[in-house]
Amino acid sequence: MANKSSAIVPSGAKPKPFVTPQRFLVYTVLTVCAVFFLFPLYIMIITSLKSIQEIQSGNIFIPTMTPTLDAWEKAWNSACTGLYCEGVKVGFWNSIKITVPSTIVSIIVASLTGYSMANWPFKFSEVFFTILLLSSFIPYVVMIYPLVIITRELGIYSTLPAVVLVHTIFGLPLLTLLFRNYFASLPAELFKAARVDGAGYWQIFFQVFAPMSVPIFTVAVILQVTGIWNDFLFGVIYAGPTNYPMTVQLNNIVNSAQGGKAYNVDMAATILTGLVPLAIYFFSGKYFVRGIAAGAVKG
Amino acid sequence: MHSVSVKNLTLKFGSAEVLKNLNLDVEEGEFIVLLGPSGCGKSTLLNCLAGLLELTEGQIHIKGKNVTWAEPSERGIGMVFQSYALYPQMTVRGNMSFGLKIAGLPKAEIAKRVERASEILQIGPLLDRKPGALSGGQRQRVAIGRALVREVDVFLFDEPLSNLDAKLRSELRVELKRLHNRLKNTMIYVTHDQIEALTLADRIAIMRGGIIQQLDAPQTIYNRPANLFVAGFIGSPAMNFIKGETVDGGKRFKFGDVSLDLAGYEGGAILDRPKAILGLRPEHLTMVDAAIPGHTIPAVVEIDEPMGADSLVWLLVEGRQMSVRVPVEHRPAPGKQVHLKVDIAKASLFDETNELRI
User: Fold this and answer.
1) Is A195 within 8 Å of B52 when comparing Cβ atoms?
2) For residue B220, which of A160, A206, B248, B265 sits 20 to 30 Å off, Cα-Cα?
3) Is A54 helix (H, G, I), strand (E, B) or coil?
């Protein structure tokens, strides 16, 4: 025994066993979690590819042998929401019309506010920051009714501008916080150097800070697009029936009872609705994590 | 006309007074070093000069013009920062021309200035690289270049070498001196490194607690420190301090059983002071074997630290530590009884009550 162990001279990296108990545990837990979250998605996809007869015959877990995209086509173009039978495509375009301006406006306002707070301290800027911080913890439902009155008084209730305004306002606390912390984490000497170079408020923002802030802008876009796209409540309250976003439309399709339930169409419509945030997470996950970490460094 | 003139400058952060009624006149082409421990207000003063901090009271004049309310870019200054503060997304050329573009200079003029600065600093081959692809020393050169292209009268340096390793630091130090010799601009340089201060400065301003303690040529600061703080701060290893009293109408310094003859001391009237401190630099003491009454201090060798060219010997005098710099071949054995010969002409005497040099 002694001979055998002395035959191997320890040198270089220490050899590790292929499977250790810790590893086994970690992989087991991760696998269970992955299955738990992916299984519903699997059911949705296979159901959306079946014909309604096949669904009614049972076998919910088994994929179809004759997949068809009919349900997807119907969900997009002609699924009925009460009176109209135009599918979720109307909602899709409405959601775009709501999400794009809300995202752009809120990010512009929040990044400038955060930049001002971090680099151009003004009277009571810390007080404003504290108020902002507190306001991000207030449940937004308490503000729904006051906002209904405000938008009504402004004469925009039940229109596109109303829902855009509401989304912009509710995005501001968190986004401003994110931008302020990010800009505060940039080296102070960089700001000083730019001032010595003669750059003013806008030049420093656009030419020095903005090009360095791609990660945080990416995070802001992801947060806003997914948040606004997934929103149901503000859409149903402030947008008005002609501007209902995709989520509201989806709800109406799934809940409108005309004959038997078209599970395949429901599933397809649901996946279509979730596709935009899903794609965004999928393609920008790396930036998202990096930006969240960058924004969280300094308070 | 002074190049830079600070008049009764006071700066407060809330209730804390960071700079207290500070006055400083810098001559044309002078290299001034602001030296002091961290928190002494030296960087704050530099930021005030640059216009990056608003004064509470007082005025700043640059080239005879009152610039107290002027924007940083309007003051005729260039600044180099400790962290280089280069714009990471711009090339070296972009970094150097950014300020000029904002100032609206014609393209040909910008190109000419960048060309000249890169020639002086020998960064021509780096012009199209981004700062991320440069070493620390190269980045600092670019940062200096960015100040250079502004073609201003006054350069401000905020600890520009502190982020570099020891070897690069000493190389760039010499280069900065060459640069100053060539350009003859006024330079104001903040550092906590006394070697940088002693080697670079025409005059050093030693600061503590927002007050300039002494403003003098490096040799004067070193040989005639104005007070105990300056004496202790400048010099490495530090000056030896011996507490005692002056007697016989200021002719002798007494501590314990030792009495030293003060004849030849260069300073003011010594008088009889019951509380005095004698300051002796390690290189102004010599080790001798035999006592010379009135001129030597008996001591016991404790340890020695050889430093290559010379050796620092630590001795015990009346139970307290003192250091002496000796040639390395004269290293004594620990425990040996020796006598330290005092060069009184190079010594400093302080009154302990007000800590000022006598």
Assistant:
1) yes
2) B248
3) helix
Q: Identify the CATH number of the domain in which residue B334 sits.
A: 2.40.50.140
| B272 close to B354: Cβ distance less than 8 angstroms | no
Out of A126-140, A166-180, A278-292, give the one with best mean pLDDT. A166-180
Minimum distance, in Å, between the CA of residue A186 and any CA atom of chain B: 10
Claim to verify: residue B169 and residue B223 sit in the same structural domain: yes
In the predicted model, what is the mean pLDDT of residues A67-89? Answer: 86
Same domain, A63 and A95: no
The verdict on A210 touching B (C-beta cutoff 8 Å) is no
Interchain pair A196, B73: CB under 8 A: yes
Number of structural domains found in chain A: 2
Q: What would the mean pLDDT of A89-114 be, rounded to a whole number?
A: 94
Instruction: List the single residue in B47, B81, B89 with the smallest CB-CB distance to A193.
Output: B81
Confidence at residue A259, expressed as pLDDT on a 0 to 100 scale = 67
In this prediction the pTM is: 0.83
- State which residues form the domain around B216: 4-233
In a domain, B358, yes or no: no
Residues B247 and B187 in one domain: no
Residue partners of B238: CB distance under 8 A and separation at least 6: B232
Flag whether B345 is in a domain: yes
Interface-testing mutation among A120, A185, A191, A196, with chain B (most B C-beta atoms within 10 A): A196
Pair A229, A276: CB distance under 8 Å: yes
CB contact under 8 A, B72 and A198: yes
Is residue B92 domain-resident? yes
> Distance (Å) from the C-alpha of residue A15 to the closest C-alpha of chain B?
37
Of A187, A198, A203, the CB nearest to B85: A187
Which tokens hold the place of B211? Answer: 């007050």
Q: Is residue A9 part of a domain?
A: no
Determine contact, residues B84/B131, Cβ cutoff 8 Å.
yes
Residue ranges for chain B with pLDDT beneath 70 = none
Dist. CA B338–CA B342, nearest whole Å: 13
A15-57 residue pLDDT tens: 888 888 898 999 999 999 999 999 999 999 999 999 888 888 8
Main-chain dihedrals φ then ψ at residue B82, nearest 5 degrees: -60, -45
Examine the fold and report which residue of B205, B233, B261 is the final residue of a domain before the chain moves on: B233
CB-nearest to B83 from A189, A195, A199 is A189
Label residue A280 by pLDDT band (50, 70, 90).
Answer: confident
pLDDT at B249: 87
Q: Which residues of chain A does B47 touch, with a Cβ-Cβ cutoff of 8 Å? A: 192
Q: Which domain holds residue A116?
A: 89-296
End-to-end Cα spacing for chain A: 59
pLDDT tens for A165-224 read 999 999 998 899 899 999 999 999 999 999 999 999 999 999 999 999 988 898 899 889
Which pLDDT band, with edges at 50, 70 and 90, does A298 fall under? very low
pLDDT of residue A257: 64
Which of chain B's residues have a Cβ under 8 Å away from the Cβ of A194? 87, 98
- Cα(B315)–Cα(A101) distance, rounded to whole angstroms? 78
pLDDT at residue A1, rounded to an integer? 46
In a domain, A239, yes or no: yes
B79/A198 touch (CB, cutoff 8 Å), yes or no: no
β-strand pairing of B203-208 with B31-35: parallel
Chain B hits for A189, CB-CB cut-off 8 Å, are: 81-85, 158
- Distance between CA atoms of B254 and B263, rounded to whole angstroms? 14
Q: What is the number of domains present in chain B?
A: 2
